[in-house]
Amino acid sequence: MALSIRLSRGGAKKRPYYRIVVADSRAPRDGRYIERLGTYNPLLPRDSETRVTLNEERIRHWLGHGAQPSVRVGRFLDAAGILTAKKRHNPIKGEPGEKAKQRVIEKLEKEKAAKAPPVEETPAVEAVAEEAQVKEAPAETGDVAEEITAEVAEPTKESAAAKPAEAAPESPKAEAKEEASEKADEKAETEAEESAEEKSTKAPEKDDTKAVGAENMKAETEAATAPEVAVKEPIDEQPKADAKAAQKEAEEAAPESPKAEAKEEASEKADEPKADAKAAQKKAKEAAVEAADKAEKKDK
User: Fold this and answer.
1) Distance from C-alpha of 208 to C-alpha of 215, rounded to nearest angstrom
2) Which tens digits make up the pLDDT trace of 186-204?
3) β-strand 68-69 against 3-12: which pairing, if any?
4) Of 12, 200, 236, 276, whose CB neighbour count within 10 A is largest?
5) 56, part of any domain
6) 69: three-class secondary structure by DSSP
7) How does pLDDT run across 69-82, given as a tens digit for each residue?
8) Which residues of the chain have pLDDT under 50?
């Protein structure tokens, strides 16, 4: 069984009182112990004789049986001359962290900066700085003048370059492009005319009506777009009446298309069964009325 001489806490809250005991090292701190060897009262001053009390005979007895004192009890024994305490050396434990070291360094730098006297410029240095400013001033004014002259000269150069460009004749490539575009326009116009002629041959009836409508539309657009005269003249309504009369005559004179005839025939055929059904209904009603009359006569 491993024995240890250590402190066992007692007392009240925030008023500790310790017993120096020998106990099994596996037992709890404030639990069962083998023998009481002294007391320790940290509330008393350091000069007090009753601050630490020790039973030297029993302590030496248990030390002879292999009991090991704790760190704090070892200091007490060393002070009493019973046992020399082992010196503990752990320099890393007392070292501050990296952030603490940085704070210390920053504080020292601030103190040095505050203690250091301000640097005063000598008159020779001030004179050199003034001479440099005086030399730079005319150079800056010269640069500004050069920039102004360059800005004025740029528009004159652009106008001079534009005049010869306008006066220069067109290149042969431009002429060839214009000729090709004119030929393409002529081809498109001829194709449009041919297609219009083919359509007019296929549907002359529709073209006549369209022509009349186009003439009317042209007349209306011309009347709408015509410039207003200062003196208002009476509006002639004769051209419109003539156009409407011509349109009616063209519609009457134009023969009916085969599509219209087919539609009329189909409508007539569709109406025939409806008429037959109506006639059958009338006959059925008449027969019912006659039957009712006969039945009334018989009852009488």
Assistant:
1) 11
2) 877 778 777 777 766 654 4
3) parallel
4) 200
5) yes
6) strand
7) 999 999 999 999 99
8) 138-141, 152, 155, 160-162, 164-170, 203-207, 226-235
Question: What number of CA atoms fall less than 13 Å from residue 86's CA on the CB side?
Answer: 7
In a domain? residue 167: no
Q: Residue 160 has which token pair?
A: 């001079």
Domain that holds residue 70: 3-88
Alpha-carbon gap, residue 258 to 49, rounded angstroms: 143
Nearest CA among 194, 178, 247, 250 for reference residue 217: 247
DSSP 228-264: PPSSPPPPP-HHHHHHHHHHHHHHHHSPPPHHHHHHH
Of 88, 115, 149, the residue that ends a domain is: 88
Calculate the CA 259 to chain-centre distance. Answer: 63
Residue 86: DSSP 8-state: P
- Given 37, 58, 88, the domain boundary residue is 88
Domain holding 56: CATH number? 3.30.1320.10
Q: Tokens for 276?
A: 């037959």
> For 172-184, how does the pLDDT look when each residue is reduced to its tens digit (9 = 90+)?
566 777 777 787 7
